[in-house]
Design the sequence.
């Protein structure tokens, strides 16, 4: 499952709570998007064999955890990409073989 954050998400994403899968989840935080500012701790949480790709800003609460990943998971940060305007809507991806949720 893939989660794409295209607009600000104060409380992040917790696999198994905000979506059905816990393992094999990929989270993309797009450019000009801020994840954080709410009360979630950890802010982003995924299980094993997962990934967090950050092109935006991830800010945990004071003394909190920004990202919690299970074994075999990866993180990647990349900056300076163009951004697009977006809305905040969850919807399932149209390909049933690769389910994903999109926060746009």
Sequence:
């Amino acid at each position: 499952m893939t989660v794409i954050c295209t607009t600000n998400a104060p409380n992040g994403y917790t696999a198994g709570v905000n979506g059905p899968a816990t393992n094999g989840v990929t989270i993309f935080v797009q450019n000009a998007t801020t994840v954080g500012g709410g009360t979630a701790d950890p802010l982003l949480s995924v299980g094993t064999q997962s990934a967090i790709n950050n092109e935006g800003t991830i800010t945990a609460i004071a003394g909190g955890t920004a990202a919690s990943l299970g074994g075999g998971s990866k993180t990647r940060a990349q900056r300076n990409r163009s951004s697009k305007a977006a809305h905040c809507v969850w919807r399932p991806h149209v390909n049933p073989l690769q389910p994903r949720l999109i926060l746009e």
